[in-house]
Structure formats: structure tokens, C-alpha cells
Structure prediction request, 399 residues.
Amino acid sequence: MTGVLRRVSIVLMAAFLLVALGPGMTVPAAAGHQEYGVRGVWLWGSTVRESGAEAIAKDLEANHVNVVFLLVRGTAGTAGYKSGLAPLADPNRDALAEMIAACHPRGIEVHAWFVFNQDKAYTDAHPEERLWHRGKPDTGHKPYEITDGRVCPDSQAHLEYTNAMIREVLENYDVDGIHLDYIRYGHVVFCFCPHHYEKAESLSIDIERVREAIGKTFYDGPWGKADPQYIFNAYEDEAYPEHRDVKAWMDMRADEVRDAVESMRSVVKQLKPNAAFSASLMPEGALADSRTYALCHYAQRYCDAELYDFICPMAYHADYGKTPAWVGTVTQGAIAESNGKPRVYAGIQAYGKVTPQDLADAVKAARAAGADGFVLFRYGEVSTEEWSAINEALGEIGR
Ligand SMILES: [Zn+2]
Prediction:
């Protein structure tokens, strides 16, 4: 950086700090967005119960965070609010009410964050709604049910239950939005539950051909050595014997995810039209070279993201062995693939092997690529040094 540029940056940063740290400044959340863009964090209910909402909100305010995504139903299926439907995470605490009371006076939005496809409390009570694996060599390639809480993503009963919880939150809490997570399949080997067998038949899909193509991808067998690219090639290439069934099956799964999103969206928009409806999405579907991979594994399509007010592509660069610049690549792809319809807030990795400089670079890369903001995963993983680096980066880029 040249001396002149450095001086300009320092002046900009000083101006930013004066504005941001001015005494008694309380900017309404909406105005804050316009001026600075969204700066969000994902936050666990357990963190609220341990650290206290007031202390967290104070810390968020000091670091110019203007949106919080509070986990109200995680993979265990317990509720982080006073629910009449799900077992409570802690009967003596209401993390959602506590966070709203602490955040709203400070101009910080609170969005209720729901995990969709894993819900241990629910599947323990309703084992018939569980997710089923395609089958491995040690099950004689026979499908088997998963018992860790994962739900068949096409379970209409679980969707209705989730809608009832969303309704419950919207009716009883002044939340600023509903945020979905795990709104996808976890892997291409799912789901071969009895319901999906019936569904495949009704759609004239030969489910055994699909299972065979998955088998050829992961396991050695009568077909020879496993070919890790097989199922993806079979989806794309008509020359593969399973092409027609694999394509119909994968498109069916993606349609299921879209239908579930539409159903939840209509609940949100009917009850509280101004509440934002959003989701965190896997990053691969944003990139041309991994779009088929993303479709076959996750059944998640960025072209369906028009159903959301905003999306957060989880561009967790360190987990993917990439540099922070990759956050910009994913952001760009997400904006292009979703046709610019939803706002895009880059999901940034703050856990594991990341440095303060990484976070600063990731925030800058997101901004340069046209993101409307960023969300850090997660509050509790961001050190004082990392917050400083982020704030310094934001000062340099003028917001
Ligand atoms: Zn199923």
C-alpha cells in the first residue's frame, strides 16, 4: 500500500470509528443496514444461557453487529423459547425473549434460527419419519434407518410440525425474521425410507437403478471398483444406463426442498409480512464446477433462492482448504446463481484455524464481491483480536 493510500485509509477508519463509536449512538436496525450493511452473528441458545443476553448484546453493540441469528431449534430438537410443542432446552430460561429484550433497544435485530432436517426429539417420538440410508455392504446393501435424529426431508408430518413452531414463534415473540438451516439433504445416499419407495413408484422412477448408481459411486461390487464420479456423471450424461432415473430422482429431491421452503415461507409471510425469511445454504451450488455435486448431495438449488429475502452461503474457507478470497468467489456465484433476487450475506468461518487477518480479508472479499453483508459463525468463537481486525477492515472499506 502506498503512503497516500495508507493515509486515506487511516482517515477513513478514523471517520468510521468516530461515527460508529459516538456516544449514545443508537441507530435503528434498518438505518444501520443502509449505512453499514448487515453484520451478523449466529448464536447458540446455550451461549445465551451461559453468558447472559445483556452481556452478549453489549458486546455485539460494541462490535457494531446489527443482526443476530439465535438458534431456537437445533439438531436435538429442543426449543430455546417457551414452546408448547417441543421439549424445552431449559425450562427456567427463555433465550429468545431474553435476547429480544436485550437487543431491540440497541437496534439489533433478532432472527429465530431453525435447523430443518435433524430433530432428535421429534424422531424419537415419531420414528416413522426418520431418514433412511441407501444401504452399505455391511447391511447387504439393504436400506436402513438413521437413528441420530435425522428426518426424511420429505416428511410432511415434520414439515407441519416445523410450521407450527414457526407460527408459535411469530405469534408470541417480536422476532425480525425466521432463518432456516439444514434445509437440504445431507448426502446423496439419502433417503430410501418406505415413503420414498412409494413416491418413486408413483413417479415411475426405478429406485433400484438409482441405488445401483449410488452403489457404483461408493462401493466396490459386481460392477467393479467404486467410481467416485459415477452418480454425478449419470445425472449429467444420457449415455449412462441409469441417467433417466437418476435425473428424475435428484430433481424430485430438489423439488421437495423447494416445496418445503415455499410452505414455510407462506406461514411467515401470512403471519408477519415484514419478517424476513432466510436460509443458510451450502456453498457448492453457487459455483459452476460443483453445481451437479451440490444438487445430487444436498438437493439445494440457488435458483430457488428467490423464495428467500436473503441467503447466507456458508463460505467456510478454512474447512474447504481455501483462502479467505474464496468468500468473494462464493459470494459472486451466489449473487449470479440466485439471479440477484435475494440479498446475499456471506457466511464467514470464525471457528477453527482462522486468524484475525483471515477474518479481515474474508469481510473485505465479501464486500468487494457485492455482498449485502456478512454473518460470522459463530458468536463465542470470535476473539477480541478478531473483532478488532474486522472493525479495522470495515473502517478501511468505508462501512
Ligand atoms: Zn424418505
Remarks:
- Residues 243-271 form the longest helix (29 residues).
- The CA atoms of residues 44 and 50 lie 10 Å apart.
- The chain has a mean pLDDT of 92.
- The pocket of zinc ion is lined by residues 132, 152, 154, 191, 193, 195-196 (CB under 6 Å).
